[in-house]
Amino acid sequence: MTGEISSVIGGKQAAGGTDYDSINPSRVDEVVARIRLADAETFSSACRTAAAAQREWARVPAPVRGRVIASIGRLVEANAESLARLVTREIGKPYAEALGEVREIVDTCDFFLGEGRRLYGQTVPSEMPDKNLFTFRVPVGVAAVITAGNFPVAVPSWYLVPALLAGNAVVWKPAEYAAASAEALYRLFAASGLPDGVLNLVFADGAATFEGLEAALDEGTVHKVGFTGSTEVGRRIGELCGRHLQSPCLELGGKNPMVVAADADLDLAVEGALFSGFGTAGQRCTSLGTAIVHESVHDEFLGRLTRALAAAGIGDPAGDVLCGPLLDHRFASRYEEYLGWIQPHHRVVSGPTGRITAGNPRGDFTGEGGLYYHPVIVDGVRPGDRLFLEETFGPIIGVTSFSTLGEALELANRPGYGLSSSVYTTDPATAFRFREGIGAGMVSVNNSTSGAEAHLPFGGNGRSGNGSRQSGMWVLDQFTRWQAMNWDHSGRLQKAQMDVVEIVPDVNFRL
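The line above is the sequence of aldehyde dehydrogenase (NAD(+)); the predicted structure tokens follow.
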């Protein structure tokens, strides 16, 4: 065990709280860290601390804040292997994926370190003489950031880095089951020289967090909420923020479609489906939900995918495997509910289902001591099935067929999520028609539904979010507000739309 971990507010450890054990899902008897979970008052207190610290942080010149972000990037890079090993141990993510996740923090820092010199406003021409118009980006104030644990360090960086760069203070509430990874990332941020109180770390359960957030919003000490998690909880947070006339940044679930056209490179499509369906044990918001395959290649695609999955490694995430265990007991229980959605008209083509045990092994692998589950491919899903319509957070994908691109698009959009999507085709016209017709915020052509680069906008629509975007320059719209200024040096009051010189044309002129 790495020791006992508690919240950090204003640079100091918070006292009190109830115990929670973060476990290693590969060996559930191993406790990675014991967490002291805070109450609602601790969360709202952290928001008050952040509000006091934010005013001074906002006065630090933006290019200097950019240098702090650069330091964070270098610190993470220097500690990449240690941080990745901790992520693998705490949530069971294969080490290669965990190392890629840590790399994403570095990429995010590398992008935003220069944005400190590019928080551009504009000089706008006035309609009147001796008058200048300007726009400025200003920080929103305090951001309350609540993140899930399937990407325990990369996704938080999408919020923390731009929020801090823009001059905000942050109260960050990570997932309890990934607390050790979060605490390690916090320490790397703190080592960059951030003043006390600018970044605060609060460990709490969902109920205490919501109560504390509600109190902070009532007090006016939170000005932006960022949330990554389920659609159900996202709705509640959106309703709470709406009462305070705030627009949160919501990154929610997905039921991400992959359309495989008749002319697709099937080997490439299978590779993409395998990674996006079963990487991180299917526990990504961008994981493949349903493969929608043209009827002429359906059987061939399904056969190749089934064989590829059978050959893939499942097991110890420290090794070279496609996927390891589920994140935590709560996700294992929920996944078993999803397996109950398999209906008699479905055809499970991947073999056994359920937890991998000595009595239900995967080849020679018995999954001893871990939350390992058989990856599942279900053919014959229908548009009215729960398995087709709802997010299934775990290693299970559905397969169905289509005859026309219009039908494929209708199927792809039907669940009402709108996060990620993919189309495999060798026809540019099909690719562009798919892009025009899909409701997802992200589209991949001949690539998986999972995987985003740090300088592209990340986010979804519909049940996947409220249209907000993370990553790249677009996320700055979440953590800054536009301020307009007019400066009249004419020495007299000039009234807009009233004291405007009019040049009159001869509207009756004809050649």
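Note on the example: The chain is about 35% helix and 20% strand. The longest strand covers residues 27-37.
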